[in-house]
Automatic annotation (TrEMBL):
Any one Gene Ontology BP term: regulation of DNA replication
Domain AAA+ ATPase: 141-269
Region annotation (Domain IV, binds dsDNA) ranges: 323-449
Organism: Estrella lausannensis
Protein name (record): Chromosomal replication initiator protein DnaA
Record note on domains: Domain I is involved in oligomerization and binding regulators, domain II is flexibile and of varying length in different bacteria, domain III forms the AAA+ region, while domain IV binds dsDNA.
Region (Domain I, interacts with DnaA modulators): 1-101
Lineage: Bacteria, Pseudomonadati, Chlamydiota, Chlamydiia, Parachlamydiales
Amino acid sequence: MKAWEQFIDLHEESLGKAATDKWLRSLKVLHFDAGNLFLEASDPFQIMWFEEHMRKKVKEGLFNNNNREIKVHLSLAKVAKPLLKKSKKSPKKPEEKPFALTFDELDTHSTFNTFLPTDENRFAQEALKEAISTAKDAHPVFNPLFLYGKVGSGKTHLLKAAAKALQDRGLRPIYCRLETFTEHVVSAIRMGEMSRFREAYRTADALLIDDIDQLGRKSATQEELFHTFNTLHVQGKQIILASSCPPKDLQHIEPRLVSRFEWGLSIPLTPPSKDSLKKILAERAQMLNFSIKPRIVDFLTDTFPSSPTASVRALEALALRSHIEGIRTQMAQVNLSLPEAAKLLSDLIKDEEEKTLTPEHILKTVAEHFGIRKDDITGKSQTRECALPRQIAIYLCRTKLSMPYMKIGDLFGRDHSTIMSSFKLIQKGIDSSDPNIAPIVSFLDKRIG
């Protein structure tokens, strides 16, 4: 089919010849007419790759001579099993696990009662409580509820608290991270169980999804979420989403989805200030019946700066461990010294130190955003699919870590002049508000923190 061949040729430059040959040209054309093209894939992974990377491009760029859209239909090749005699020596192949949806767990600590809001975040908690109190009775007034804020602002705690409160009312909510939702989509496609996937998600009494900002460039996931959202919304089921940014700042997500995220009420959350965090820690210590001196509170906020959650968890660990150690050594909690606290929390302090921003973290974040591998960024490919992410990663390593050009060059396997050129190119794009550069860098800068 000429239109299909032209479509492949058009995208070969951006995808690279190797990827094009492996994933597109290897698709077998079964038959076609003026408005339909039927292709056969050799394995499920080829279908998954097509749905994730090409489905949207096909809708936007595959047309017949009359400028009508050509719909692409994919099927999986049926492989005939050869008749072979069983051999006692040949090992048995492990059987594929049956399709099952495993959802993220709700920890017992994350409830409304244990959420210690700041004045700025109190409205979010009250809005969720109000939505849950009427969940059985009528269509939600605000649907969806969209929570957004930086790490440590309490989004995940509130989502889990809402899901737990819904369960306590006898309802069946689904809480999951976006990563889990994506894994379920991929697994359902691979195993031919989309009907069971849809039945599970679209019959829930409420849907709560965390990390929705990670939806970018996941075409198949976006398609399923769009229809799941519509089904639940029409049924009057509450939808609650959480993200690191407001809907208008989401990147590489279909406009029809973003517009739905904006249908209801968007609520900003802010991490507590240092003074507010100290108050939260003092209140939490009181709830735990743990006597704690101001110097220990200062120690926790200074030693665990990555997020308020890290400070609270350190306090909880300190309360438990000092109680156990006190029983063993008659150590008085109220007179707990800084060296004693540091010793009891040595493992958590080590974990906190490892959270310090590194080039590896920047590479991982940029790769995930663009839907490629870290090796693609540091590799030799010059396609735009890899070149732009590489240039942005170079820029972020320079601005976020103040790395010397020579050291960045060693990381990316390039000389310092190439690194300087990449940095200047991205800086120019930011200064000129290039829509292909500036918003992406801004989004990644906020996400990296």
